[in-house]
Amino acid sequence: MSYDKEQATEEFTRWSESYDKCILQTLLFGPSHRAIIRRLKTTYGDRPLKILDVGCGTGVFAARIREALPSAQVWGIDLVAGMLQQGKNRWKTHSAHVQPIQADSERLPFGAGTFDVVTCANSFHHYPHQDRAVAEMTRVLKPGGRVMLIDGFRDGLWGWFIYDLCVTYREGAVHHCSRARFRDLFTQSGLTSTTQAVHHGFAPFVLNEAIAPASSVPKPHFARERSRVLS
Fold this sequence. Notes:
single chain, 231 residues, alpha/beta, Rossmann fold, eight-stranded mixed β-sheet, 8 strands, 39% helix, globular
């Protein structure tokens, strides 16, 4: 059975109440957030940036970006209202610089060429149509902007056991991409200069980074849907 958005919504609605306290915050989410932030600081320094975080959950990563890069403006989108609602105090704390929006990764509610960077940390395996999500991330990037996408590294034996067996047993038919599949998705959407950095450990992950075309901005591929700004 294929994994769909209804399953994802039900799963993350249940998970939302314990999400900020789960062990993955220590084993996977914290290390992967730090990896992206290091890349942001290395690449951009203290430059003001417009950053979109896709699959932002309760806003933990968005808040960390703001703390590390005080000149950045961050937008976070998530499909699940319950996740956004659980982060309401965090959103209020950072309300001047972080904007949460309920929206679908396949239909981002932004114009082409809006953001300097699009991040996506540890949620991509839940996206039923991963090609559409990458195409949308590419579309909303400014020419020369970057996608920084982290997900579980499943190519090695340990990663295969954790992500392809354990995670799918618990979460259903989610799909962790191989490094080759990430490269194919990026190339198909028009992204260039793909680099991939594998971080080993108990919960290994891979940071995939690529650059939007400098000469043109992709046109939208998919129909728009209404999005909702969290109030």
